[in-house]
TrEMBL record:
Keywords: Lyase. PANTHER family: GAMMA-GLUTAMYLCYCLOTRANSFERASE. Its EC number is 4.3.2.9. Substrate binds at residues 5-10. This is gamma-glutamylcyclotransferase. InterPro entries: G-Glutamylcylcotransferase, GGCT-like, GGCT-like_sf. The lineage of its organism: Eukaryota, Fungi, Dikarya, Ascomycota, Pezizomycotina. The active site is at 95 (proton acceptor).
């Protein structure tokens, strides 16, 4: 099974992905499918960053009180990229992924300058590994 990167917000742009994913941009910045995170909810936090809220059964902390989090008719559409592992690590730095938190892999943590406010409170972002529903494969599928 291939692990694909679900992109939303500004990472929908292959041009931006090519500028960020410098190890193998021809692979990592090439969208392979349009997909949906069923029952997730998309929002813009107070300082203007896109974020997603998981379904109610996956919510933690302040996410539990988010208006309408995880309704059956919710869904976040995005694109899937077949990400090179080294490019994913670079992208994690841009996204402020907390590489020291449980389940996020190993590392020394996100640099302080990439920490950013979010709807759920300040701090590093954790990486989620979830199933996305493919709406349509691009370029003949993977």
């Amino acid at each position: 099974m291939k692990h694909l990167y679900f992109a939303y917000g500004s990472n929908l742009s292959p041009t931006q992905m090519a500028m960020r994913c410098t190890v193998n941009p021809s692979r990592s910045a090439h969208p392979v499918a349009i997909a949906c995170l069923t029952r997730w909810r998309w929002l813009i936090c107070e300082v203007g960053y896109a974020n997603v809220i998981p379904p109610a059964e996956l919510c933690v902390g302040k996410q539990r009180t988010a208006a309408g989090a995880g309704k059956d008719d919710d869904g976040v559409f995005g694109v899937l990229y077949e990400m090179d592992a080294a490019d994913e690590e670079i992208l994690d730095g841009y996204e402020g992924v907390d590489t020291c938190s449980a389940g996020s892999g190993s590392g020394s943590g996100a640099p302080r300058e990439v920490l950013r406010p979010r709807e759920q409170g300040d701090g590093c972002y954790n990486k989620w590994f979830v199933r996305a529903k493919v709406v349509t494969w691009l370029d003949g599928g993977v």
